[in-house]
């Protein structure tokens, strides 16, 4: 297995990908010798479309072979153009009565090899070179021209739909050229990608630095920035795409009132979480220029292996043939690389805060002394102070978030006390508030367990005698809440979870009192360092390694500190 990549042999990756596509789509076949993926039984009475280029840009190009898209795609080695023989084989496979349109990105190798194959073809072949990159200025690119980027895939989609519906070669090429001429693309990334089979190079970007205008073959961009504000970064990129005043980058004649098809493309290493989060900023930047986005593609369409970045493509719908172009954009396709386009919503209305809110709950009649607030404050402050230790324990025994999760809940509870939402004058509703806070502000497994426990505790206290809550009231309510919690978790002591100190504390409370119960809970939490995990995240960790580290369960330790805070406040 190749280091850093799931590849027995890096050079086999392009063919492995093509083989995988044939398993995903019964309508395609692969010529393994020439690495040509093609529609299994192409309609010879219709124009064929072929494309291709170096591998490493998946799903481009082979992922777009299918209905209403490409007829065939030729795969070169990673970041290297296929050779002329491969392209000739693709032309032979799709040979038909109506002719073939060859669509390639503007890179020297692709243009030469596809061009030579087309020139020697024995049937009608037209050639279209796509260059949608706005990073390379007109002066710099005077001879080589603009590079082909993700906008090329939109050409496939529109031209493929026209060809499938019987348009002749001249018409397919005319509309395809119209799409290409009205496309602009710019990308940005936190790093260059790693090519399988090569040694890893030293990073060219500092932490937090972003390169704008990088090519999809690791070519350097036009500028670097430490701009960490997403809106500003996207605004800068959209300006480069749509500017009509920049003499170097005014490639498309944008104007106010134009309609656009927009593609937000993952360059390979960006999470879906981050990519989709860029959508509102992209729409807002275009709306600011009075450009209406009528269709939106979001996903991975033309990658650069594992590059941690994204590109924005904007296709201006021209005054003529806009309906034809949109019909192609909207057409369904069997090609797995296509996600459907959506009609975006600008400034969607969020759910009103009042929606579904419960009616105001009347005071419960159960009260407490000021010790109620003092104890909660002390417990929360204990947890907040111990966050670094709890986090360190969780890095070893879990996923590293327990300390911050508990701290967030504790801080929110203290804020609620300061706001008068938690008060000794109404114990039941105060505990309900605590349950709501941990549910909303903590998250994770611990947040859910705390929320269930406090919700059940509030229900048990609600049926207690009115007046000031006694130690016996608290002990019985806590036991009732524990019984409810047992219905939601299979963890029982000893389990190396927060259930260890919780059960010990609740069992000791009626017999030994608060101080002794808190002390026994702390011992139980300390002992978790010597236990094998039976539940929780730690159950998935190497148990031998966990024992060597000898750290207590972070959730158990946090809960024990909460109880210690309660006890210290009561004895003060």
UniProtKB/TrEMBL annotation:
GO cellular component term of the entry, any: cytosol
Residues reported to bind substrate: 54-57, 105, 110
Domain DhaL: 370-568
Pathway(s) of this molecule: Polyol metabolism; glycerol fermentation; glycerone phosphate from glycerol (oxidative route): step 2/2
MF GO annotations: ATP binding; glycerone kinase activity; triokinase activity
SUPFAM superfamilies reported for this sequence: DAK1/DegV-like, DhaL-like
Pfam families in the cross-refs: Dak1, Dak2
Highest taxon of source: Eukaryota
Protein's UniProt keywords contain ATP-binding: yes
Keyword Kinase among UniProt keywords: yes
All residue ranges annotated as the DhaK domain in the record: 9-338
UniProt keywords, alphabetically: ATP-binding, Glycerol metabolism, Kinase, Nucleotide-binding, Transferase
Gene Ontology biological process terms in this record: glycerol catabolic process
Swiss-Prot/TrEMBL catalytic activity: dihydroxyacetone + ATP = dihydroxyacetone phosphate + ADP + H(+); D-glyceraldehyde + ATP = D-glyceraldehyde 3-phosphate + ADP + H(+)
Active site per database record: 217 (tele-hemiaminal-histidine intermediate)
Family, per entry: Belongs to the dihydroxyacetone kinase (DAK) family.
Functional note: Catalyzes both the phosphorylation of dihydroxyacetone and of glyceraldehyde.
Record's protein name: Dihydroxyacetone kinase
